[in-house]
Every structure is written in C-alpha cells, then in structure tokens.
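Quick one, tokens below:
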C-alpha cells in the first residue's frame, strides 16, 4: 500500500508538516515529516536542482550525524519542508498536533475534564498526538478514558468497513473553530453529525471531491505533503496569532468612537515623495439644510438607523449618493468587522471604546495576508461553514438522524 498521510477532516491539511530552519535558528527548529531529526540533502548539486543557484540555501553537517542538513536560504524552494524564512516557529506552533473523535465504549465513564458535548453525546475526544501515523496506531497523551492509542482514519475504503474502526482526525485548533461555529449555527456542538459526515463523504474516491479546502490544499495533497512555497499559511496556528492582539492594541481609540470628525481623515506619504500629505473627506452639510438630497433632510437619528441596516456595499453606495454619509461614526466599523470578517471573534471581547475601529477595519482588510494565522483561520472558517452546510442538508434530507445505527 505504501506510505499514506492522514489529513485533518476539517481543514484538509496533513499532520506531517516539516520545516527547514534558517542558519541563525537552533537545530530543534527543523524537523522532517516524522517530526524528528532534520531534512537532509545528499550533495550541493541536489540543493541547486531544488532551490536554484542563488537561493541562499546551504548544506551543513548536522551535529551527531554523518548526513548533511538542508538549511533554508531566503529563496528556498524546497517542497520537503516549509522555510524558516517564510514562516516563524511561533506561527507554526501546533501544526503537527492531532487528536481524534472516537465513539464511546459501553463501559465509558465520565471524567472531570469532560466537556458538555462529551457528557451528553456518544463521542469523546482523545488526548493529543504528533504527526501523521503511517499504518500504525496514533499514540496520544493524556490517555483520556483509557485511550492511549487509536487508529486515525480520514478515509473509509468501502461501505462495509466498521464505522468505529478508527477515530476522526482533527487539529485541536480546527476542532475549536468547529465547536464555535457549530454552537453559532445549531446552538450546540454537533459531533454526532460530524462523525456521520465522515462516514458518508469519507468513502474512497469520494472524500474531498469538490470540497472547498482551497486550491493550495488540493495542490499540496500528494503522497507526501508538498510544502509548496507560498502555502506556508496552511501550517500557521489559526487560534494563537502573534500579531493579532498587537493589531488591536496599535489602534487604540483616542477620541469618542461615536465621533464622526476623524473618520476618513488620512495622513500619508505618496510613493516617491518625501513629505507627508493629508486628505480629509469634506464634512456633510448641516442636517435639514436646503438641499435636494433627501438623506440630508433626515434627523441624524434616522440617518443612523438607516446605517444600521446597511452592508458594507450599501454604505459605499450611500456615500457616493449622499453627502449625509460622507463621514461615519467610528464604532460603525466594529459591526462591519464582525459582519465582513466573522472569523475575527476577538473583536467581540474588546470594549467598543478602546479601539479606533475604522483604522482596525482598514488594516484587517488590507494587511491580513501578512498574518498567516489569520489567513489560515479564514480558510478553515469557510471550510467548516461548508461542512455545517452539508450536515444541515443531510439532516433535512433524513440522511443523518439521531439514530446511531444509521450505517
């Protein structure tokens, strides 16, 4: 059968992520697909073939080994591991973590750390393991409910395979996003339907067919994961994002969030210029002033009520059509952030008075590609939304029911 990697059922990414370290990083910052050692290369010519003559990559004698380690340069193009020049060790924390959802045994008894969905349902989550097991059981720690090892299966090879023969593999971070979205959609964590979906859509030659994990995942899903340059964000932690909290702190609000005096007021340095220039949107005419603009004749309270029902696109059109909406209250952009970027759940916990929401919204919209964890979170969020859409459809169609003997 040969080597075969197990992938996360929710995000489609392997657990066998590897990494090339930079020359200034310690040896433990590199590992191969097994999670140990390092990525080796036989000779200089092989390095040039993979990465090019001017990549900056080098071969280094690894301490305690006769093999040569591939050290990533700024232009590293290796598909054997992600380059330390493109993604930091901190960003990759947890990329190899794997846990499984498994069905309770008849002798299952509660434990103090059980979650509500475990107590009330027929499934529980194991401890955490490392990497993608190859034709062997996954060892997990701690051994929750006496389970120290489990078969991790993301594919069912035929309809006759025992549905309880293996656990449903997920990244702990992806499962946290699933729980959040499931509660938001259904009001509870629907692990039962998730497990059934794995059986229905996890049959050989059916799983992943047309599933929107994204082009990058489809491209990288080979027998061995292809660590294609440019796809480093797939290995970034989507929960603990180093720069996200700092982004919120950097946009602290120095004026009332209900003020309209500073919105759309910029200071910037044009390309090629040496002086800082400014731009300010002209303020709206006084409410009730003589004008043919019907919106300007409305009291400000009604103007704000209209805004409350508008999407970002609606507001853009309003600003083009009426001077009454040239300036907008800063706090409006908190709502737009939550609506346009619902995966930014940290926003829900921030005092509305503490952040300049316009600046934050603008930065989040334009700079999120520079935060690999946030980029990955958005992708996973959308993939899990599609999972929930399928669960919802299967339940409506009667394909998934609360009957555990469905298949």
């Amino acid at each position: 059968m040969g080597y075969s990697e197990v992938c996360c059922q929710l995000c489609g990414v392997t657990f066998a992520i590897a990494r090339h370290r930079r020359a200034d990083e310690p040896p433990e910052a590199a590992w191969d697909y097994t999670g140990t050692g390092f990525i080796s290369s036989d000779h200089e010519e092989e390095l040039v073939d993979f990465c090019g003559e001017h990549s900056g990559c080098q071969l280094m004698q690894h301490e305690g080994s006769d093999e040569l380690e591939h050290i990533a340069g700024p232009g590293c193009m290796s598909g054997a591991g992600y380059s330390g020049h493109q993604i930091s060790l901190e960003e990759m924390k947890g990329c190899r973590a794997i846990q499984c959802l498994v069905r309770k045994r008849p002798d299952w008894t509660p434990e103090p750390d059980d979650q509500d969905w475990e107590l009330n349902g027929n499934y529980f989550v194991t401890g955490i393991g490392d990497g993608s097991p190859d034709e062997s059981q996954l060892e997990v720690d701690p051994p929750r409910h006496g389970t120290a090892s489990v078969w991790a299966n993301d594919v069912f090879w035929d309809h006759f395979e025992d549905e309880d023969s293996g656990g449903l593999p997920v990244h702990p971070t992806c499962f946290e996003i699933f729980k959040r979205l499931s509660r938001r959609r259904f009001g509870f964590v629907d692990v039962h339907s998730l497990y059934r979906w794995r059986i229905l859509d996890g049959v050989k030659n059916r799983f992943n067919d047309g599933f929107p994990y994204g082009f990058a995942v489809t491209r990288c899903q080979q027998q061995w994961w292809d660590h294609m340059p440019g796809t480093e964000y797939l290995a970034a932690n989507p929960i603990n994002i180093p720069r996200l909290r700092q982004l919120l702190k950097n946009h602290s609000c120095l004026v009332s969030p209900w003020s309209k005096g500073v919105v759309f007021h910029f200071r910037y340095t044009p390309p090629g210029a040496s002086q800082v220039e400014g731009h300010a949107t002209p303020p709206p005419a006084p409410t009730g002033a003589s004008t043919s603009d019907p919106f300007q004749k409305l009291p400000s309270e009604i103007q704000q009520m209209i805004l409350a029902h508008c999407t970002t696109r609606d507001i853009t059109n309003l600003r083009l059509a009426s001077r009454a909406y040239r300036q907008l209250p800063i706090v409006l952009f908190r709502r737009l952030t939550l609506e346009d970027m619902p995966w930014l759940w940290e926003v829900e916990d921030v005092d509305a008075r503490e952040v300049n929401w316009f600046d934050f919204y603008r930065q989040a919209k334009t700079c999120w590609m520079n935060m690999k964890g946030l980029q990955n979170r958005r992708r996973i969020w959308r993939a899990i939304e599609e999972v929930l859409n399928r669960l919802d459809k299967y339940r409506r169609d009667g394909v998934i029911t609360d009957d555990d003997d469905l298949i």
